[in-house]
Amino acid sequence: TTAAMLLVERDSVALTDAVSTYLPDFAQNGKEAVTIRQLLTHSSGLKPYLGPDERGPDRQAVLDTINAQPLAYTPGTKSEYSGLNFLTLMHLVETVTGRSFDTFCRTEIFEPLGMEQTRFYSLDRTAEWVVPTTDTAGTEYRGSVHDPMGRSMGGGSGNAGLFSTVRDLARFAYMLTHEGRIDGRQFLEAETIKTFTATADVPGSTRALGWDTKSPEGYSSAGDRFSVSSFGHTGYTGTSMWIDPTQDLFVILLTNRVYPDDTDTQIRKVRPKVANEVYEAIVGPPEPLLPGATPSD
To answer: Of 135, 139, 173, which is closest to residue 278 (Cα–Cα)?
Structure first.
C-alpha cells in the first residue's frame, strides 16, 4: 500500500489507471478495465487465493497464473479480500520502477523511515529473533514467510512475508498520525494519507485503499473505543495495527497465533480487547451513560 502511495504522489501512476496499462498480460479474460484503485479496495473481481495446484513451480508461474485468471465477479460491485490483488500490485510496482519489490521497499520506505529491522527474507533464512509459525501440516518456519502463496513467490511477496518489530512499526504509525511527517521531514503528503485511508465507494464494504476502516457497528478488530475515522489492518499469523487520527493514537499487536496450531482462531477475541485496553489506558474509560453511572463491560 505504501509503495502505491508513493507512486501516486510521484505521478508515476494514477488510481484510475487500468492495471493493463502497465501489465498488458493482465488484460486476459475480461480484466482489461480493472483499475489500480480496484486492486487496492479488493473490488477487482479476482478470486481470493490460488490453491497448491494452481500456483505453479516458481514466482513467474504464479504471476502468469494471476494474469490468466477470469473475473469471479463484476469489478467494483463488492469487496472481497484477495491476495492476488496485492501480488498484482507488487508486479506493477516492479514494472513501473524497474526495481525489485524488495529493493524498492527497502530504499524508498524502510530506510527513509528508519525501520532498521523491517525486511522481506528469502525462504532459506532462519532468524532466531523471529517468533516461529506453523502451517496446517505442522511445518515450522522461523524467519521465512508462512503464507503458501508467498512461499511460491520465493519469500518476498506483495501479500505476505514482511518481518518487522514494534519499534519499526511505531515509527511507521507515528508518521501516519502526524500527517506524513517524521524526524522533521515530510515522507508522505497529508492529502495522500487522507485519500488512501478514507472508506472507498464500494457497496457494503468498509475498505479504504489498501487499508480497512472501523466498522460502524458489529465486530471490529479495532474494538469499541477507536473512532469511526480509524483505519488499520490485520495479518493472518495474528498481527494487527489500528490508527485513530482523532486521538493521535495507534495500537500494534504482533503475535504468532498460528504456533503451534494454525487453526486457532482466538485472536478474533484478543485483537479488540487489546485495542480497548490500550485506548482506555491512554485516553481513559468511556463517559458514563448517566450521571453517577459506571459503564459496564
So the answer is: 173
Total-model pTM: 0.94
pLDDT digits (tens, 9 = 90+) for 230-262: 999 999 999 999 999 999 999 999 999 999 999
Distance CA 130, CA 168 (A): 14
User: Residue 253 forms beta bridges with which residues?
Assistant: 240
Q: 2-162 — its CATH code?
A: 3.40.710.10
Largest Cα span, the chain: 65
Extract long-range pairs of 267-274: CB within 8 Å, 24+ residues apart: 267/238, 268/219, 268/221, 271/221, 271/222, 271/223, 271/234, 271/240, 272/219, 272/220, 272/221, 272/222, 272/223, 272/224, 273/223, 274/223
Q: Where are the domains of the chain?
A: 2-162, 214-282
Residue 52 sits at the vertex; the CA angle it makes with 47 and 53, to the nearest 5 degrees, is: 90
Q: How far is CA 67 from each of CA 55, 83, 130, rounded to the nearest angstrom?
A: 12, 13, 33
Q: What is the pLDDT of residues 27-80, one digit of tens each?
A: 999 999 999 999 999 999 999 999 999 998 999 999 999 999 999 999 999 999
User: What residues pair up with 185 in beta bridges, in sequence order?
Assistant: 182
